[in-house]
Amino acid sequence: MKPAIYVKDGDTVELEVKEASDGQIRRNSDLNDVTNLDFSRIHPLTGPIFVEGAEPGDALKVEILDIHGEGWGWTAVIPGFGFLSKENDVPEGVNSQALKIWSSDEGYVSAKFGDIYVKVKEFPFPGVIGTGMRLNGVWSTIPPRENGGNMDVKQMTVSSRIYFPVFRKGALLSVGDTHLAQGDGEVCGSAVEAPTKVKLRVEVVKSRNLKSPVFVSKPREAEYDGDHITFMGFSNDLWNASLMVVKEAISFLSNFMEPVEAYMLLSTVMDLKVSQVVDVPNWTVSGFIPVSVFGNKGGEIMDAFEARER
Amino acid sequence: MKPAIYVKDGDTVELEVKEASDGQIRRNSDLNDVTNLDFSRIHPLTGPIFVEGAEPGDALKVEILDIHGEGWGWTAVIPGFGFLSKENDVPEGVNSQALKIWSSDEGYVSAKFGDIYVKVKEFPFPGVIGTGMRLNGVWSTIPPRENGGNMDVKQMTVSSRIYFPVFRKGALLSVGDTHLAQGDGEVCGSAVEAPTKVKLRVEVVKSRNLKSPVFVSKPREAEYDGDHITFMGFSNDLWNASLMVVKEAISFLSNFMEPVEAYMLLSTVMDLKVSQVVDVPNWTVSGFIPVSVFGNKGGEIMDAFEARER
Fold it and tell me: Which end of chain B has fewer CB atoms within 10 angstroms, the N or the C?
């Protein structure tokens, strides 16, 4: 693939990055745009950027200097895609197409879920960022690989320094799928997807011989204070333990909104952690939901969590 | 099993909790005590506590009011146990028996790893806490189950409120396996194991009909500021993605200490997160290591992380 631009080792680069749907979903979109979505256009990338001096075996250091959005974002459930898409024992409608448009202002994204005005801290990051693949060919942008790509690691945000293996002359860095917010897990298959402007600094580290990307980050400023409500899953399979967490969380939130809305909300705010992988034969996965995102409805939700009958 | 004590709904209870080895590992232990460890004595529990008025179908609310240790703790690798115990492609010695004794002072546990004096924030919590099982019988304390037990969820710390399903008259709460520190994952199979005094408040919530425990917690005070170094794993299996993270992290830390020491350190400080479960067919698991635990050696370790050749 022909490089879009050529830059020098140490240069700062400013990019315009499209949101994941390549403009098919817009600020004023409705469900019809999800119905008609052409999935083959998912993840338009900005790049590739040819960095002079980068040779196979080197690393490319990418420092994220700034990302900002344009005042809106979207989250959708696309049938056939998402963590629950193969599950049958889920509330009706969880895997149906759905769309939520968020507005973004003063460091928060907000949208109505049921009759709750949800406000989520913004911490923009590129869902997709990676160097050119080792092998020639046309590749899907969906799976992450040794070159990075669709890693969806939300801590990879402003001030992070990411080190990528270089497989091609010039490194051939591309960026896409920027998110304004995401929970660890991104369970419904999309985060708060948004077009952004991204400012990066690139640097060649000679002969680094990385096997796959690594990065340095600070705990993101956007961590929530206050109470978190937590569901746990226990299983001899981390996937099934995670499913148990997500299903329980949807079941609870469905007291306040449509199940499919709960699914989209969890994709945006719930963090999945691997609590332990050693207590044979059941591993623990925990999912944390910060109550502060529910604003003045937080008290009601907390009461329901602590006293509900089901 | 006959209750050890009877308490009223709403009572505060103070417990003395043994560390996981039941006194087989002591403050002045050496490797011989690991060699001679009788695994059948693992997880002595304090309890059961019979809470008056608790009936099957209710929930038992347990608020953790205080936990404090006795100035020391231990971490060990016990052959045959731990996340890497079935792996062959690991550095020599990773799965050999090993023991680290930590001293605890002013909110930190500390121990020497290689020639690095590692200092880890203390946030004591019960590895094992749970109500009486639904079925009669003698049960291993190793796996977590619907009644709780060996969940090893480190956020379940002082000020947390945990809700357990009640399966037996009186709830029959037991506590054990207290930890002074642990990373999400507890990868080597032990955390900073320590005898503690635990203060709890118990309360019956009628007819709650929980399927498994849930809890409320605040982000723990012990979160680390500053840079974190992060390894990522990509695989169509969350277990294999997690293995990739742990192996890469051990490989890096082995530049500074024995591989088995790196394994024990990661068990104590590295947090495993499920970054995404939707980018078909490769999921992302990320492991975060706070550089501040390395004290004045942090700069050297960060330099090595950012510029190393391997």
Answer: C
